[in-house]
Specification:
13 helices, disordered N terminus, single chain, 6 domains, 40% strand, alpha+beta, Methylamine Dehydrogenase, Chain H
């Protein structure tokens, strides 16, 4: 009763988000789980489609069934297909003559057989084979099969002649009728048969015809269903209901009473689905009717089937087949009034008002109507994007990318108190239990205690002032997650809690959560993982422990699980599993993907999620988790259990021996001595998208370890030239390693050839008395030596060729004049070196940087003009030697072109550019260059320098070639200022890279034009450039 009451409540609310703030919260704790939730609009269902490109024999799907092993069968106009969730096995008229016509009906029985009705007759699939039926007494076979009904004593078959019964391999006309048996429905009160102009009820009292209304006297009854306590008939002239023993037209406002019906299905959740030529309709008890068209599942539907997991499969006349199920989520989007779908924050006020902050301001979801209404236009805010929210009684604090604002009494204000945050991105706003107001911003921590606003930055102990999240623990302590580590505010002081507790390498902290026992969970950007702190040590929970890679933005607990939302989606971990992982370092967590936005594993519901590190990135209301996303508000029902059934068993389907397929019947196969090449096909017919199978296999007696297919969709294993012996082929689902149905086995025995038997070997030795055998062995040894000599010769030739190739490669990477590396060498080597540097701790923390120095010889043209090109070449050779003596191992000196040289220094402490530039200039100035003919000359050079990366928190903003471009621009600034000096670009104090920009190709001068860099040098005025 409780489940029914909840459905009625949700139906009564019937909001665009269907009572998410009321009806669904009142249903918390219900044990029922529907794959086709009647209170959910079809647009919020999850759908997946398959067509001919995926393996269907034809795009028109007219019949669907699921057999006892879990396979789905699809009947089309052009053949039959069996589907295991990954692969289609197709059958055509070459397999059974009746498949020459369209498949009109399918039905599976408890004995594992699949019954196939076509316009050409009847076939049945059993034990891997298709066969036809004979009729009793040699009577004519039915010309066409329209419908099936499974009963306790066999299968009933609807045909133009009436209803046949299939028993003992034969067909018997059990119920001759005055009209064709177009549809069948077996109920406790008898067998109902849809015909033309009438419906027959066949029971213990005989056959009773029930005529259709006069205006439908020639209508064809193509479908029958029982739903909502009534019997429904789908006819070629509209939808009818049986009332008081008479058929009446459906009186719904959707016009179904006069619309041709193609199929009916009453699902276990209480929905009646009606397929019409151009749309799909849903009738749910006590709810407005729904018409679905122009979307997968609603385009020319022709067949309906509910699988054993409760998902609805819809066959289309033009678009193959579509599966729909409730999924975990609902979205608030354009239909609910949300124009800009990019959302950043969500918060609830004490009065229950729900606020959403997005890319164009702030709006609210009205609990009374479920609609979104924009309340504050983004143009009125300090910045259009409402990046964080704090909802309090009668007021709303709004953090933007350019300071904060206050919405109070219907007016937007910017109190003078907030002016000091102008220009800062406000990531977090928190009111603690002591009444203090905290702001975590890109420029540090701000604390309002009374009338004052105090600022905490680097001078107060924040190693990185970019505060992402402020979190109050249950004991009142204040934790700060920053872009580069974990800190704590305590009695007016900032403590480096992460460093003090051994958190390890610095990392952006995007989420903080406190478990009921007081342990901390943080979401770290490095590794995209969780870190668990028990008061003494930190435990890393990443991909090696079974946790999906997903930079966390929200962590919460609901329905016995830990829920983690991040950039790559949402996953959940059973709380007992999490606690066990904390106690056992070898335990692998069984994390389940719920929303998959690009995780490192399959499974879950595809969808867009989630945005930004900071507070108000998620909100748990009862069991409903609200998340701001790139596609509106994502509402996850954490108490849902869409698929409660155990998946289907793992199966070894068939075995191919020497190119011929065999279907094992008793779990073992005996093979002949020459049957050594085997191919196994295996599968698990499962259609649960939340937990796709992870199959592995092995051939015991041959494989030492389990193997995993390169592609989980390629469910085959091939072995060639196997030796004789006894083998056991095993397939297992790693996700069901504790389940009896999670493993399948097939025994294989390969007989030995005569010469492989022990008896043959003994007989041969006795017969030949050993001598001929020794001669045979000597010849084999001789051949082996010859083969070894030939292989040795081939190896020598191969080594010579490799050496020659290596020399050619070295020549192509070397400047012929100076012997230095050239530009081609750097183009190949520098990317891999930078990738290596990015794993060094100092480089990751931003304490060290690589240096690019571009050097140009001043007035080099005069040397060539006055002393000749030979003298110029001698100068370049000597300059190459001078520069090579100045660098360390691992640094590079490269002739960049002409009289330009590029020096690349491996990571060194930042701030060394002035010393480095002056040292190179002085070293060149002090050297006497021999021009030949007893002439000497002194040279000067101009140098441009730049550190990589410019911004430690944006290592990929610019590539190395763009850094060389900046160094070149600095060099020419030196040339313009008089030469014989150096200049370097460095970030302007306080400048940060654009937060939304990870990398930008092309000319890097935009970063100069935007005033983010300073150009400094002895002959250069330090000033912003741009």
């Amino acid at each position: 009763m409780r489940g029914t009451s909840c459905r009625r409540l949700v139906a009564w609310l019937r909001l665009p988000v269907h009572g998410l703030l009321a009806g669904l919260m009142l249903c918390v704790g219900l044990p029922q789980a529907w794959a086709l939730d009647p209170g959910k609009p079809f647009r919020d269902y999850v759908s997946d489609s398959w067509d001919m490109n995926d393996g269907l024999p034809q795009t028109s799907v007219l019949a669907i069934t699921q057999d006892s092993r879990g396979y789905l069968w699809f009947g089309t106009q052009g053949g039959l297909a069996r589907f295991d969730g990954v692969r289609f096995i197709r059958y055509s008229q070459r397999d059974a003559a009746v498949l020459a016509g369209p498949v009109q009906a399918l039905q599976a029985d408890a004995a594992g057989r699949t019954w196939i009705g076509t316009s050409q007759g009847l076939a049945v699939h059993a034990n891997g084979r298709l066969r036809t039926f004979d009729t009793a007494g040699g009577a004519a076979l039915p010309s066409s099969v329209w419908a099936f009904a499974a009963t306790t004593d066999g299968m009933l078959v609807g045909t133009p002649e009436g209803v046949y019964a299939a028993t003992d391999g034969r067909l018997t006309l059990r119920h001759p009728l005055t009209g064709p048996a177009l549809s069948l429905l077996q109920r406790d009160d008898g067998l109902w048969v849809g015909s033309q102009g009438q419906v027959f009820r066949i029971g213990s009292g005989g056959t009773q015809p029930l005529a259709l209304p006069d205006d439908a006297h020639d209508a064809r009854v193509v479908a029958l269903a029982h739903a909502h306590g009534q019997l429904w008939a789908g006819t070629s002239l509209g939808l009818l209901r049986l009332e008081g023993g008479r058929w009446v037209r459906d009186a719904g406002d959707d016009g179904l009473g006069g619309t041709p019906v193609e199929a009916l299905h009453a699902d276990r959740a209480g929905n009646l689905w009606v397929a019409t030529p151009h749309a799909l309709h849903r009738i749910a008890d006590g709810q407005p009717r729904e018409r679905i068209e122009g979307t997968p599942g609603g385009i020319a539907p022709r067949a309906l089937h509910e699988d054993r997991d409760g998902s609805l499969w819809i066959g289309s006349m033009v678009q193959g087949v579509t599966r729909v199920w409730s999924g975990w989520t609902r979205r608030i989007g354009e239909r609910e009034g949300l124009e800009n779908l990019l959302l950043w924050s969500v918060a609830q006020a004490p009065d229950g008002q729900l606020w959403l902050g997005g890319g164009d301001g702030v709006g609210s979801v009205d609990p009374a109507s479920g609609q979104y209404r924009r309340r504050i236009d983004g143009a009125l805010l300090p910045h259009p994007e409402a990046y964080s929210l704090l909802a309090e009684a009668g007021r709303l604090w709004i953090g933007t990318r350019n300071g904060a604002a206050l919405y109070q009494e219907g007016r937007l204000q910017t109190p003078p108190l907030l002016a000091s945050m102008h220009g800062a991105q406000v990531n977090s706003i928190v009111r603690d239990r002591a009444g203090r107001l905290w702001f975590g911003t890109s420029q540090g921590l701000f604390l309002q205690d009374g009338e004052a606003l105090r600022h905490y930055g680097e001078a107060e102990g924040l190693g990185d002032p970019r505060v992402r999240i402020v979190h109050e623990l249950r004991d009142g302590r204040i934790l700060l997650g920053t872009q580069n580590g974990l800190y704590e505010w305590r009695d007016g002081r900032i403590l480096a809690t992460g460093a003090l507790t051994g958190l390890g390498e610095s990392a952006m902290i995007g989420a903080i959560h406190e478990l009921p026992d007081g342990r901390w969970l943080i979401g770290a950007a490095v590794g995209e993982e969780l870190r668990l702190y028990d008061g003494r040590t930190w435990t890393r929970l990443g991909i090696e422990r079974g946790v999906p890679a997903n930079q966390p933005f929200f962590i919460g607990e609901s329905a016995g699980h830990l829920w983690v939302a991040g950039m790559r989606g949402v996953y959940r971990i059973p709380m007992p599993d999490l606690l066990r992982a904390a106690a056992d370092p070898n335990h692998r967590i069984d994390a389940e993907a719920v929303i998959n936005s690009g995780m490192d594993r399959p499974g879950g519901q595809r969808g867009k999620c989630c945005n930004g590190a900071g507070s108000s990135r998620g909100l748990l209301l009862g069991r409903m988790l609200w998340l701001p996303s790139r596609d509106g508000a994502l509402v996850v029902d954490t108490g849902a259990a869409p698929f409660a059934r155990e998946p289907a068993d793992v199966l070894v389907e068939r075995l191919q021996v020497q190119g011929q397929w065999r279907i094992p019947q008793d779990g073992s196969v005996a093979l002949g001595a020459d049957e050594r090449d085997l191919k196994f096909e295996f599968t698990t017919p499962t259609f649960q998208p939340m937990r796709p199978p992870l199959l592995r296999y092995r051939l015991r007696g041959y494989d030492a370890h389990w193997r995993e297919p390169d592609d989980q969709g390629a469910r085959t294993a091939t072995y060639t030239n196997l030796p004789p012996g006894q083998y056991l082929f095993e397939v297992a689902d790693l996700r069901r390693q504790h389940s009896g149905g999670g493993i399948a086995q097939l025994g294989v025995r390969i007989a030995p050839r005569l010469h492989e038997t022990l008896l043959f070997r003994i007989s041969l030795c006795l017969l030949l008395a050993g001598l001929p055998y020794l001669g045979y062995r000597w010849l084999r040894g001789r051949y082996a030596r010859q083969r070894a000599a030939l292989e040795h010769l081939v190896q020598e030739r191969t080594r010579d060729l490799q050496a020659a190739n290596a020399r050619l490669e070295a020549i192509s990477f070397t400047d012929p004049l100076t012997g230095l590396r050239n530009r081609r060498y750097l183009a190949r080597q520098i990317p891999s070196d930078l990738a290596f540097y990015e794993r060094e701790p100092g480089f990751v923390r931003g304490e060290e940087a690589a240096v690019f120095a571009l050097l140009d010889v001043d007035h080099f043209k005069q040397i060539n003009d006055v002393h000749g090109h030979a003298a110029g070449d001698r100068v370049l050779e000597q300059l190459a030697q001078v520069l090579s003596e100045m660098v360390r191992g691992g640094d590079y000196v490269c002739r960049w072109g002409g009289e330009e040289f590029l020096l690349v220094f491996r990571p060194q402490p930042r701030g060394q550019l002035p010393l480095l530039g002056e040292r190179i200039c002085e070293r060149v100035r002090s050297h006497r260059f021999d021009l030949g003919a007893a002439q000497a000359h002194r040279l000067t050079v101009s140098i441009g320098l730049v550190e990589h990366p410019l911004f430690a928190d944006s290592p990929d903003l610019l590539g190395w070639e763009q850094m060389v471009t900046l160094a070149d621009r600095a060099l020419y600034a030196v040339k313009a200022a008089g030469r014989n000096s150096w200049a370097a670009y460095r970030p302007r104090p306080g400048a940060v890279a654009p937060a939304e920009l990870l990398h930008r190709d092309g000319d890097p001068c935009w970063i100069i034009d935007e005033g983010l860099l300073l150009l400094e040098g002895p002959t250069i005025d330090s000033r912003p450039i741009g």
